Each structure stands twice: as C-alpha cells, then as structure tokens.
C-alpha cells in the first residue's frame, strides 16, 4: 500500500474546496513563504510583497473550485505570484512616484558599472545550488524568520541552517571574486 505524499497538496485542496478552514490555514502555512519569496525575488518592497501575497491568496480562493491539477498547486502559486508581481511593477512604471522622480540621476558611467556589478552578482547567485539560492533569498528577504522556520522551508534541521548559510555565503563570495567583482566595486 502506497503512503500518501506529504508534499502533495491534493487532499488539502479538496478539503479547502469543501469549506474546511483548517485545510485552508494549512495551505497558507505551507506555501506563504514561497509566495513571499517569489514577490521579493522581483525586488518588491515588503509592503508591495505583502500586497502580492494577499492578491495571490485571493486568486487562489477565486480559482480553488476550478483548480484542475491540485497536485501542481506549488507551480500555480509561483506563476500567480509572479504575474501579480509583474503587474504591480508595471503599474508603478506607468505612474511613477514623485519621490522617485525627485531622486538625483546618477551618471551614465555609474549606471553602467552598477548594471555590470548586478549582473555578476546575480549570475553568481543563480549558479549556486538550489538549496543555497532558496536559503539566501529567504534570509535576505525575511530576516525575521527563525532557523526552525528556515529549516522547515528548505528541509534542513534547525541546527544545520547556520552552517549551511555560512557555506552558501562562502561559495557565493568565491564565485563573485572569481568573476572579477572586487569589494570596492560591490559597494
């Protein structure tokens, strides 16, 4: 007899469809970090990321009765959070804030150097193993998370989170240096 897959949300989705509030809360508990990470990966502020999270959960509530592949909820949430993030970004670009317009414009050279630095850094981050990328993004965007929360999110024992974070940062540092980004250029 096959054991049910604990990562498969199908049963929770079915219970939530039937109106089981506990199942809905368990879905939120299980996937809130994921939606937050997607929003923050789009470099949204905490307030904007919170809006994206709320909108993503609202979309799920609206689409839950018709969700065809509940076992693919993870992918559905990622796609929806990404779309909500991009929609929010587009709305801000189409009506920029006055404060942004009042900021002094950097020199073209500075903009180019910042772009090069960012490209090197993001290539180094994206070259890390998946677990490192996820851990570092969660730490960067959710500094309030405990090691127990972080460990639960990525499948590590709480006591392993600190050493794993240290290894991931050391690997990132080596890759950035190997790519030619010096500490002065990183600032």
Short description:
It comes from Labedaea rhizosphaerae. The chain is 74% helix and 0% strand.
Specify the CATH homologous superfamily of the largest domain: RNA polymerase sigma factor, region 2, helix turn helix motif
The biggest beta sheet is recorded as:
none
Number of helices: 10
User: Structural class, from helix and strand content?
Assistant: mainly alpha
Order of helices and strands: HHHHHHHHHH
Mass-distribution shape: globular
CA-CA gap between termini: 57 Å
Low-confidence stretches: 1-5, 96-105
User: How many distinct folded domains?
Assistant: 2
Helix percentage range: over 70%
Portion of residues in beta strands equals under 5%
User: Total number of β-strand segments?
Assistant: 0
The assigned CATH architecture of the largest domain is: Orthogonal Bundle
From the 3D structure, determine the CATH topology of the largest domain.
Answer: Rna Polymerase Sigma Factor, Chain: A
Q: What is the residue-averaged pLDDT?
A: 81
Could you tell me the radius of gyration in angstroms? 20 Å
For this structure, what is the CATH class of the largest domain?
Answer: Mainly Alpha
Protein name: RNA polymerase sigma factor (Sigma-70 family)
Pfam families: Sigma70_r2
GO molecular function, one term: sigma factor activity
Keywords: DNA-binding, Sigma factor, Transcription, Transcription regulation
